[in-house]
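Hi P.,

Sorry for the delay on this. The queue was packed all week, but I finally got your sequence through. Input first:
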Amino acid sequence: MAETRGEPGSHRSDMALFLAVLAGLTLLHVVLATLLPLSGDEAYYWDCSRHLDWSYFDQPPLVIWAMVPFRAVLGESRLAVRAPAVLASLVLGLALLDVTRRLGGGPREATAAYLLLHTTPLVFLGSFYASTDVVMTAAFVAAAGAAAAVAQGEARAWPRLGLAVGLGFLAKFPALLALAALAPALARRQLRSGLQRSPWPWLAGLLAAALTVPVWVWGAQHGWSNLAFQLRDRHRGGAFTLRYMAELVGVNLLLVTPFLAVALAVAWWLGWRRRDGGWQAVLVATAAPLVFFSLVGLRSRVAPHWVGPGLVLAVVPLVLIRFGLRRWLIVAGAATGLLLSAGALWVVSAPLGVLDLHWSYRGRPVRVSTDKLAAAVGNDRLVAETVLRRRPHELVASESYTTVHLLAFLSGGELPTRLAHVKPGKHGLASLYWYRPQELVGRDVLFVTEKRQVDARLRDVFAEVEELEPLQIEHLGRVVRSVRFLRCRDLRHPEGVFTRLADRSPAPRG
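Then the structure:
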């Protein structure tokens, strides 16, 4: 006789399917992580992991620390850099299973949620890309599951919540938005009255606070520049505008496809009508990133993927609630998402094939264009040319943190690279806290750049600057990338350009 879904054998087969899907997709993540070229951001995190510190100027340390054991085992490879992301994607699948069970589902629905997420570019591409987002998302979903358990009366779920929020914060600061999931539980008078009598909430708070200590230690050592960057410099507000919010919505329609976006919104509303504490905890956590960053977007640009944790979590209600057109929306969304993901993989693996498709969007303050793909062309040749031109005593520098860290990674760590902060960029400045002025004064530098605006600043800090013959990288008979080499002698004023440390400032232990 066929087993019903509620029988033990049916549950075991559902669990076996879930584990098989989890293992299969993890293997796919490993393959893609090994084959696809590293981005500038990923190389930046890798370079940070060679300079171990309590924390970093623009990032908490968890993802960077996590690369160290993988580098020790796998060497300076793409997989070593991306292994924390692959591991986080595995943890995300397990966290989805917990949330699904909290809302009345099981392994079968968790399997559907994990598979559906992988049809979206947001998760398919993010599952093997070395970033703080995928680790924070896994922690965010785990925190939502713990908050749902608290709302359902499980006091001992508090430490799990503290652990998830603390680790999420140590990956990326917006993990704190997961605490919004406690709002429905704390609105209940009975649960509030029990807080003072129970040790579990206080233990959770202490655990979460203890996990955040590295960020505060680094901040205290460096004049709280990390917090100033996050709270002031990164989101320096301008005039009220709806343009940034429109960008946020528009790009996220691509990240999850318009079809799934509609389905997620309908499922969220139907779930909210259930008036169940666990459901409401998950649904509030789902909405928190979108609401928060939409408000931020009224005055400053926000990255669309920052609302990703909420979108990932929103898939759980979608697989649990049935409504009209749901199947059609899911199928259409999955097909569209897979096509978009395939297109993105093609662009990343073969950027030359896209350079002739001229397209641009003039946003504020930057312009997005296919011309920018030229920066991904010819990096191996650039490394070889840099090695050839560099004199044994010279450092290698650039104003671009992408160029600096890719040169370091692609050379196997052999090129002694330094970032030169000669343009008003805000991101990627961690290396300005790695070297003291006394280590830099008097050094000669081979400067690699694709810009003209850096020359005057370089002449301010070096005794002499000599331009060499540029490297011209061609495609179909036209130059798609022109790289300049400047031989800079006798660095006299490294402060503010190559370092923000004083001679007695603490430097990273790495």
